[in-house]
UniProtKB/TrEMBL annotation:
<feature type="compositionally biased region" description="Basic and acidic residues">
    <location>
        <begin position="1"/>
        <end position="18"/>
    </location>
</feature>
<dbReference type="GO" id="GO:0004017">
    <property type="term" value="F:AMP kinase activity"/>
</dbReference>
<protein>
    <submittedName>
        <fullName>KAD8 kinase</fullName>
    </submittedName>
</protein>
<dbReference type="InterPro" id="IPR036193">
    <property type="entry name" value="ADK_active_lid_dom_sf"/>
</dbReference>
<dbReference type="InterPro" id="IPR027417">
    <property type="entry name" value="P-loop_NTPase"/>
</dbReference>
<keyword id="KW-0418">Kinase</keyword>
<keyword id="KW-0808">Transferase</keyword>
<comment type="similarity">
    <text>Belongs to the adenylate kinase family.</text>
</comment>
<feature type="region of interest" description="Disordered">
    <location>
        <begin position="1"/>
        <end position="21"/>
    </location>
</feature>
Amino acid sequence: VERLSQRRVDPVTGERYHTTFRPAPTPEIQARLRQNPRDKEENIEMCMESYYRNIKELEDFYEDAFYVNADQDPFAVFEFIESCIIKPLPCKKF
């Protein structure tokens, strides 16, 4: 929630900032930053609530799904995803 709710955009340049991790370099830029309405804390909490309400059903449906550790080198992430696509997941029949 913190990571998403503190995102800001400069409407003049389109540059993205984060109030904690990547603050605007000058007070002038900081003054004109805008927050996307979807990034408001209450909207993020609603999305998270929906996610947790539905995650069990999704996990059951996609029981053979793979998890991607995206906190690594982009090339390694790509290689892992590519290897999973080459041998696709079986689909459940309705």
